[in-house]
Write a structure and sequence with these properties.
194 residues; alpha+beta; Beta-Lactamase; five-stranded antiparallel beta sheet; 5 strands; 49% helix
Length: 194
């Protein structure tokens, strides 16, 4: 009986239904935090494991060096992503970069805008993951292959873009999506100012 009395005192309630509800919420929150920590650790381990130093490569013979073709640049369609509303602009971004979904999240994991089915989860999990990866290696872009998700810093450090699609972005696409995202945020961030 002392444990139950302690719980009533801890949650500052005398109603058994309220106590059970608060205990349930506390358990769900604890399980969610443990799951998030384990998922971040797993992804961090996976990413850190791929950072092995590259083996030394000998220089190619002179004839081969002259014939080496350049890798083709990815073509980014010239589509204006700023539309009449934020949701239209987000859909245009999704189509332009062939994404399954796109979520823009603040640094603290809150949804700014999204075309995804689980934007709160994407914002919370992947903004935290982006910050952990950024601590290890300061880059504006990361691709998490196991989740088929690209994470990129919004220009100005205002948040994180979470783009679901198979395959990493090319350097040209990274630059373009960051610029396009900035245009959309600039257009709609201040309540529709141009």
């Amino acid at each position: 009986m002392d444990i139950v009395d302690s719980l009533y005192g801890f949650f500052s309630t005398s109603d058994p239904a309220t106590l059970l509800l608060e205990l349930l919420v506390a358990v769900v929150l604890a399980v969610s935090l443990v799951y998030l920590a384990l998922e971040l650790y797993r992804i961090y381990r996976e990413y850190a494991g791929k950072e092995a130093p590259a083996p030394a490569v000998s220089a190619p013979p002179p004839m081969e060096a002259m014939k080496a073709p350049e890798a083709p640049k990815a073509v980014v369609p010239s589509i204006d992503v700023v539309k009449g509303s934020l949701s239209e602009s987000m859909m245009t971004l999704t189509q332009k970069y062939r994404l399954e979904s796109l979520t823009l999240a603040s640094q603290d994991g809150l949804v700014i805008a999204s075309t995804g089915k689980a934007p709160d989860q994407d914002a919370a999990v992947y903004s935290g993951l982006f910050q952990e990866l950024y601590k290890v290696k300061h880059e504006p872009y990361y691709y998490v292959e196991s989740k088929e998700v690209s994470l990129y810093a919004l220009e100005g450090g205002s948040g994180v873009g979470v783009a679901h699609r198979k395959g990493a972005f090319s350097p040209e696409e990274i630059k373009a999506i960051r610029e396009d995202t900035r245009k959309v945020i600039d257009r709609f961030a201040a309540g529709g100012r141009k």
